[in-house]
Amino acid sequence: MEGNGSSVVPPQSVAEAETLVKRLYQSGPAKTITEINDQLLKLQHAPEGWQLADALMSSSDQNVRFFAANTFTVKLNNDGPKLDSDTARTIQMRLVSWLVRLSRQGEGAMVIRKLCSTLTTFLIRSPSLWRRPLMHVGASLQTGGLVTEDEAIDLSAERLSEALNSSETVVLLWFSASLADEVSRLDSNTPAHSQVHRQMEETVQDASALLATAFRTPDPKVRAEGLKAFLTWVNYAQPMWPRKPEALQHLRNLVESAAQALTDPTLQHDALDIFRDILESYTSFFQSDHMQRIGRIVSEYVQPKLLEALHDGDAEGVPYGQMVTAFGVANVLDIVEHPETSDGANTVIRLHFDILKAPGYPGDEDELSVLSIEFWNTYIEYVNDTVFSQDAEQPPPTWIPYAKSVLAQLIELLWAKMCTPPANLAKNWTDAEHEGFKEFRLDATDLMLSIFVFLGKAMLQQLVALIIRSLDNKNWRAVEAAMFCLNALADNVLEDQAGDDVLAGLFGSRLFRDVGDFSQTIPLQARRTAIDVLGSYGQYVERHAEYLPDTVRFLFASLENAQLSHSAAKSIAALCSACRSSLTGELEGFLQQYQLLSGPTADPYTKERVLGAISAIVQALKPESAKVPPLLALLENIEKDMQMAKSYAADGDLDAATTFGVMGLNCLATIGMNLQNPEDVPINVYDDDDEQHSGERAFWDNEEAKEVQKRIMGCFSVLEVLGNDGDAIEAACHVLRSGFAETEPGPFVLPASVTVRFLQQCYVTTPRLEFVLSTACILITQQSRSNSKRIPDEVNAICEQVVTFIQQLGHPSQDPSIAQGCIDVFCRLIPYYIHLLFEPNSALSQQLPTILNFTLQAIQSPDIFPRRSAAEFWAKLIRPLSIEPRAGLQQDVAVVVAAYVPQLSQILIYQIGGLGQRSELDYLCEPLKALIANVPSAKHWLEAALFSDGFSAITDRVGDAEKSLFLKKIVGLRGDNRKTKDVVREFYAACRGTVVSYG
């Protein structure tokens, strides 16, 4: 754009200036204001600058006048405090005269408001105190000429306000609002601004007189502007005058007259917005008599309008509903505790009931129901806070029966509002309308959770009664809505068994028989929600096995419906996991059901969940030998998927091969996870038959059981065709991990050699190699438990393979994720397997320098996670071993550590001296503390690093004294955790120059 910086020659005359402003303005808005201000400000330094500005204010172009005013706002902000008193007085008089002249000429709001803002900037930035600015400007407006400040000092604000005509009053209201708005942004604690805020405590008297007059005038425009200015002053007062009741009272005295606008049809909407704003953001502004007055207005004027809008389905009712909600939230104490005596309390509750009774669906044409949730959330929050904060000895509040009655009615209204629309209506909804209805249901169920905390079992009885009643009437949308609510309460209901007798009425009804009868025409959503209820209330069904046949039959029947299969599979998995012991007799039937789902077109999610459900039941079978036949049946289906994958791969269809192979491995992992002993299995303290348990454990070592493991391991053969697929690699790792968590032998507790071979088949380019390395880490950790059998040969093989990966990487930054995984493996060696790195003449010990150098490179690398793992490795290696797997190991480790102390010390000091990241300092402190506490020569090498040329090249912000002090501190702390970290952080900050000094 032309006019950017030095490319524009400053104007030398009014005509040039006006031409420049117009040209810049027309060339584009992006930098117009900045550019024009820059050029006009250059003019203001000329002797004729004020005359030029005065002439520009007389331009025929409104934009020129606007920018002339804006220029002085900028100049006052920059140079205001430097003005002498005479110059300041001259600027003040010119600004006032411009405002008067332009307002008399009928200037538009844009320029007049900008001049009001400029006058406010003058008041804030001028070194001279401007006493009674409103009276000064008001008197000038009223006379039509320039009145001096001294002449306005003793004027009566009430008389002057009465003397102004409508247009003059509006201009003065704009100036008044500008004062309140712009001064509110100034920090009252700074000396430069405290005087301005003190002046506002006096100015509010003139402003309130002006507002009182504006509220009495018959001109609706003046009253509307008065309301806006009133709100601006109230917003100013909220943070500034919490302890200034005298100043605040001037505004509070206006509430009665301002509230009259709520009764005026021409101003009602503006007034509703303003009073709602104050009710929501500054409730304490209104005093008791104010609230009573507003309550009467809500009853007499807002209520009829809202009821009319609700009846007509008119969106114009939203502002009235917002006002009712804001008033209700602000007066929730009286509405809850004094519903009979509080003005407007009954009105508020009744209107919120009416809102929920009104026709329409939330998210579609009904916006008010969403607003109503806000009020009811506040209502129940107050109820719960009050009830549950009472001491047990205190009598219950007298209002509790009334609150229970209100909330019981609310539950029924919310339930009715949550009913899904008929299909013919819903199909025409937009995505936004669908999402709006969904959000309302979620918000409503959150509200119901809060209500349940108060009502408890009574609410559960009400919801079950609604389901049964709707079921009798075949009103399936109503049944679904009540089940949706019940589903949301599941965790709370199941916390104890107090509601079991109520739930019996539901689960003992014909509900699940009906929804399971697919010959009946029932909305899909109702069946889906019924499925979700079964998944959520599995604990209850577990305690009441008599309900299992109907529920399980319904769920398996739902699997055949594509739109219900995912929900049904999820609930089957949850229910069978919870009720596994009660369903062992149904296992054969479930296996047959699964055969119907396991075809080539079966959905992977459904297969996984159903397989997991059946596996959970298999886990509950006794004795262990009984698990073999059903397990083989399940594995047969997995093997079919693997064979399909191989066939597709042979035909060149890798996509299909991947689909079947990954699905099969995921299903296999799901079986393994569900065969794990559940954490909540009760322990029989009288059962001490060790011989029996020993026999059960030994079962998985016999040939019959090993056949199961061979079949499981055989499934890994699919990796021969999918070895480059990351999802397949990760799924295979999940299969291996499913057995790691077990403490007893089992079908998925595979020999450690299986994991080793899996790792050995990988290359550094293998997808998800970091996941394979993590799996190896878990194996080593599990086999490091005190009661585990040691597997040194397997761990040695793992380490040799990891060394190969390190050599192939070359540097940790080549692939930080793999580098971290490799280092983590070596971290897990300590203490039980660390001797493998130090066995004389072993292949692994010969690679020890490679391993250690790689970890040192990781500490110096910019990659966070390898650095953290390497720091952990060195900290563990330096500290004395808690267990020494072989004699003399500690001494061998110490010899190696001593050889690396100089290099490690230098790396740590360089990182702490500024090369590292602040977020990593705590991790770097660990090996540093270990060195100081365990290596006698560490002080010498740390000192050498601190005073080396290399450290000086990193930072020159700390001198020798600071370095010596740092070394003295950390050595003196001898590894104290918190204090060492603090010292390191302080030194790092000094090296980076983010603190003034270090000492």
Automatic annotation (TrEMBL):
Q: Does the keyword Metal-binding apply?
A: no
Q: Where in the cell is it found?
A: Nucleus
User: Which UniProt keywords are present, listed alphabetically?
Assistant: Nucleus, Protein transport, Transport
Example GO biological process? protein import into nucleus
| Family annotation (SUPFAM superfamilies) | ARM repeat
Give the chief site where it resides: nucleus
Please name the Pfam families in this protein's record: TPR_TNPO3_IPO13_3rd
Which Gene Ontology cellular component annotation is one that this UniProt entry carries?
nucleus
Q: Which family does it belong to?
A: Belongs to the importin beta family.
* Protein name per Swiss-Prot or TrEMBL: Member of the karyopherin-beta
> Whose protein is this, by species?
Friedmanniomyces endolithicus
